Amino acid sequence: MSKDESLRHDIVTSPAELEVLADALEREAVIGVDLEADSMFHFQERVCLLQIAIPGRNVVVDTVALSDLSALRPVFRDPAIKKVFHGADYDVRSLYRDFDIRINNLFDTQLACCFLGFKETGLEAVLKNLFAVTLNKKFQRKDWSRRPLPKEMLDYAVSDVRYLAPLTEQLEQELQEKGRLTWVAEECRILSKVRPSVSDGAPLFLNCKGAGRLDPRGLAVLEELLAFRRHIAREKDRPLFKVFSLETLLALANARPAHAADLEKAAVLSPAQMERYGR
């Protein structure tokens, strides 16, 4: 099969097409799953594409066009169908957050690689080492919420998910030979239950690495800065880190400049940030 043929895919954009896909998936024993999101470009991230691979077919579900994926819930819930991810934690949380999708019978190939002692467990390295396949990751940090998506981005989206099923077969065999398959199965069962964090009114600084080095006054300043960053990010629809990095806020909480001149002297903000927020 040529490279172009192996990257061929169907695009699902309507509820009727999604129902047909769900019926087809219910007859499969193993499906490869991946997704693309827009966390690098918006305040409230969301899943923008869901990629699914089964033997002889790659499918891209446009989750910008389709906000309701309830037709796929039985497939992901079915314990008779193995759902294969690579580095599933983020995907499991995202599918639950955006579509209320719960997953039974999950297999994480990255976890499997860890239990087999692989030095490099990223999918790019694993496929190169095991299958002599080189992935092009040039679109990894693109804005997947844009429409229409160019063909090159859609090709990228299915370029790795198609290998997940054959990779699983090889990894499971090695795990079985080493007596570690049940270990991975238990870890995958636990992983399938992770959920996105929920804001419960707790201080924002509790989720900030490095906050523990601040004194009480510094923590109070950091909390105000984190709230200010969140307000600006929501208003501008930008990710938090594109407003201020956490390192910048920690440095400000440490320095605690009282006036604009002190802030400029601290040299914590960039010239653009000083212009926008430092006056």
Radius of gyration: 22 Å
CATH architecture of the largest domain: 2-Layer Sandwich
Give the ordered list of helices and strands: HEHEEEHEHEHHHHHHHHH
CATH topology of the largest domain: Nucleotidyltransferase, domain 5
Main sheet specs: 6 strands, mixed
DSSP summary: helix tally: 13
Mean pLDDT score, rounded? 93
Name of the CATH class of the largest domain:
Alpha Beta
CATH H-tier superfamily of the largest domain = Ribonuclease H-like superfamily/Ribonuclease H
Percentage beta strand:
5-15%
Model regions low in confidence, pLDDT < 50 over at least 5 residues: none
Distance between the termini: 61 Å
What would you say about this model in short?
The protein has 279 residues and is an alpha/beta fold. The chain has 13 helices and 6 strands. It has 2 domains: 3-191, Nucleotidyltransferase, domain 5 (2-Layer Sandwich); 204-277, Orthogonal Bundle (DNA polymerase, domain 1), CATH 1.10.150.
Outline the structure in words.
With 279 residues, the protein is of the alpha/beta class. It folds into two domains: 3-191, 2-Layer Sandwich (Nucleotidyltransferase, domain 5), CATH 3.30.420.10; 204-277, HRDC domain (DNA polymerase, domain 1, Orthogonal Bundle), CATH 1.10.150. 46% of the residues lie in helices and 11% in strands. It is built from 13 helices and six strands. It has helices at 3-6, 15-25, 73-77, 89-99, 109-115, 123-131, 151-159, 164-178, 181-191, 216-236, 246-255, 260-266, 271-277, and strands at residues 10-12, 30-37, 47-54, 57-62, 82-85, 106-108. A six-stranded mixed beta sheet has the order 1-4-3-2-5-6, with helices on both faces. Helix 5 runs parallel beside helix 8 (164-178) and helix 10 (216-236) packs across helix 11 (246-255). The longest helix has 21 residues, at 216-236. The radius of gyration is 22 Å and the shape is globular.
